[in-house]
């Protein structure tokens, strides 16, 4: 019991709670339950109305007779930026310092408002040197403070935080032994696709589409009755296959909700295969809140033409005694994974750490005792220092002699650094002479031929690698169709949806704004890397090139 924790994942609609082992290789699910997330719990990543959440959490803990009060929260937010980076092979206690020193290269944000966290992915070799490959996060400080406050109000001891992308992979790497597979996490409003090869994460993408549209379509149909809530509908869909309903209209609405999911999963797998010749997916591993929907595995298998199953993960977590009721381990997988090896977050600021050290050092000693201790310590130090001083003096003399004898090495090292700097300048200049931006012409032609006339393209930003479109349409369904059309362009090799926001205007007219990044076929991007760039980075790069061209003229 002493080593158990509560892992809590707070979603937009549902909150999952698991009692499991903390930092062990083979964790178990002792107790688990879910409840509907109260409205207005968070407002712009800060804590708002917390009392309804506390009441529902306390009720669930009491119902399942859970006494554990140590907690680990799982973070999932579109405001968390993630990047894979490679750094020199340094001591572990220097990694964080190195990341902050080079933070401007990874994230174009104000680091005073963010905390950097990381996970060591692998050790790689570049140019004959051993280096670290890391997954690095930039998490808003106010988000971390909100979860710390939430734990305090709920009378929980916050022992750690973890990122949803890291939490799931802990158990995938341990329990799935296939050489190459795609792991798909189906949640209410998001779908996360992770490509794993030989137990290493090769690619991870998250899209703003989940099973919420499907569940809402079932609710609207009235198939399970009127006024049935989200979680009740999900429970019934786990027992009855709604994909085989006789009503064609209802079945079409449900299938339409799945198209965005299957389209994005297929697109990510095709993108990976196109950049890795001969790489063939063996299967798809399914988990998350939507993994237990009846008929889901068969439907995705037919759509993706690959075996789809979550059985390996189910078998890894058999139901423990005392965990009564319906049991869905695939829904709680990220909660369990968060307790295995959380990412390295700092839950205390420098001021709190300094105060604790000060309290620790405040040991009461009587004045007479203190004086006696000082005298004894002084005598011991004096006797130890005198012979040691003579030894150091001899050592210094020896080192000075060696330095004068090997002065020529310093001169050669200086010449080497000068030559290396000149070489790097020439190499960078050569790289800048090669660029490919011919893709924009063919892309514009295809855009005029294939896009509907009623869409509004609010802005276009193009680089040698890709073109970014800011588009406004009337609905999510129209947005999905446009993304599917773009993915079929001959001038484009990959399409990524960066953001999607549905808005209702003052005149009660709804519209959807979303941003897509289309990668050119034959662009100058390195096809073997998965690093991404933000819009700010693209704009800064374009402005710099324009300034260089003006100076040249």
Give the strand line-up of the largest sheet: 3-2-1-6-10
Overall radius of gyration: 29 Å
Residues in β-strands, percent: 25-35%
Q: Helix segment count?
A: 17
Percent of residues in helices: 40-55%
Q: How many E strands?
A: 19
Report how far the terminal alpha carbons are from each other.
73 Å
- The SS-based structural class is alpha+beta
Q: Give the overall shape.
A: globular
Report on the biggest sheet.
5 strands, mixed
Structure description:
- It is built from 17 helices and 19 strands.
- Helix 6 packs across helix 7, helix 6 runs antiparallel to helix 8 and helix 8 (248-275) packs parallel to helix 16.
- It has 553 residues and is of the alpha+beta class.
- The strands form five sheets. Strands 3-2-1-6-10 form a five-stranded mixed β-sheet.
- The relative contact order is 0.09.
- The chain has helices spanning 51-63, 95-101, 103-106, 141-153, 164-175, 212-221, 230-237, 248-275, 296-304, 311-316, 333-338, 350-361, 367-405, 407-432, 439-450, 476-487, 535-552; strands at residues 4-10, 14-21, 29-36, 42-43, 46-47, 70-75, 81-88, 114-126, 129-140, 157-163, 180-186, 191-197, 200-207, 283-288, 308-309, 456-462, 466-473, 492-504, 510-520.
- The longest helix is centred in the last third of the chain and has 39 residues, at 367-405.
- It is globular and about 95 Å long.
- Mean pLDDT is 81; it is low at 350-354, 356-361 and 525-539.
- Strand 12 (191-197) and strand 13 (200-207) form a beta hairpin.
């Amino acid at each position: 019991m002493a080593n158990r924790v509560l892992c809590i994942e707070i979603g937009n609609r549902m909150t999952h709670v698991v009692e499991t082992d903390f930092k062990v290789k083979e964790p178990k699910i002792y107790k688990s339950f879910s409840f509907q997330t109260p409205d207005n719990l968070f407002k712009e990543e800060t804590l708002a109305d917390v009392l309804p959440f506390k009441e529902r959490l306390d009720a669930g803990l009491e119902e399942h007779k859970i006494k554990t009060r140590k907690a680990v929260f799982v973070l999932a937010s579109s405001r968390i930026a993630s990047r894979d980076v490679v750094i020199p092979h340094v001591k572990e206690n220097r990694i964080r310092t190195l990341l902050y020193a080079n933070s401007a290269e990874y994230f174009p944000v104000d680091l005073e408002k963010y905390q950097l966290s990381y996970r060591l992915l692998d050790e790689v070799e570049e140019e004959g040197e051993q280096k670290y490959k890391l997954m690095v996060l930039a998490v808003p400080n106010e988000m971390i403070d909100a979860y710390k406050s939430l734990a305090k109000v709920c009378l929980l001891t916050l022992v750690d935080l973890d990122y949803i992308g890291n939490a799931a992979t802990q158990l995938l790497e341990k329990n799935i032994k296939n050489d190459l597979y795609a792991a798909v996490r189906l949640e209410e409003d998001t779908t996360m696709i992770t490509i794993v090869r030989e137990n290493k994460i090769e690619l991870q993408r998250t899209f703003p589409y989940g099973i919420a549209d499907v569940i809402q379509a079932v609710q609207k149909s009235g198939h399970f009755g009127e006024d049935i809530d989200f979680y009740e509908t999900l429970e019934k869909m786990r027992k009855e296959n709604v994909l085989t309903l006789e009503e064609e209209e209802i079945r079409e609405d449900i299938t339409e909700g799945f198209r965005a999911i299957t389209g994005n999963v297929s697109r990510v797998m095709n993108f990976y295969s196109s950049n890795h010749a001969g790489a063939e997916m063996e299967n798809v591993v399914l988990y998350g809140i939507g993994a237990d929907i009846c008929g889901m595995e068969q439907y995705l298998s037919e759509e993706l033409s690959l075996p789809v199953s979550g059985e390996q993960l189910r078998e890894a977590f058999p139901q423990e005694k005392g965990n009564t009721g319906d049991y869905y381990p695939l829904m709680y997988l990220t909660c369990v994974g968060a307790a295995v090896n959380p990412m390295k977050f700092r839950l205390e600021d420098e001021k709190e750490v300094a105060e604790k050290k000060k309290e620790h050092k405040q040991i009461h000693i009587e004045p007479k005792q203190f004086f006696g201790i000082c005298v004894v310590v002084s005598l011991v130090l004096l006797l130890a220092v005198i012979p040691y001083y003579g030894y150091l003096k001899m050592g210094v003399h020896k080192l000075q002699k060696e330095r004068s004898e090997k002065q020529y090495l310093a001169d050669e090292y200086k010449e080497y650094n000068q030559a290396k700097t000149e070489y790097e300048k020439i190499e960078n200049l050569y790289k800048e002479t090669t660029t490919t931006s011919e893709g924009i012409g063919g892309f514009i032609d295809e855009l005029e031929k294939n896009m509907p006339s009623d869409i509004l393209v609010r802005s276009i930003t193009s680089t040698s690698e890709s073109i970014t479109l800011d588009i406004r349409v009337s609905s999510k369904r129209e947005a999905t169709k446009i993304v599917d059309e773009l993915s079929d362009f001959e001038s484009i090799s990959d399409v990524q949806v960066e953001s999607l926001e549905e808005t209702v205007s003052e005149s009660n007219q709804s519209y959807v704004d979303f941003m897509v990044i289309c990668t050119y076929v034959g662009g100058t991007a390195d096809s073997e890397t998965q690093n991404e760039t933000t819009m700010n980075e693209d704009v800064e790069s374009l402005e710099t090139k324009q300034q260089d061209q003006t100076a040249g003229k």
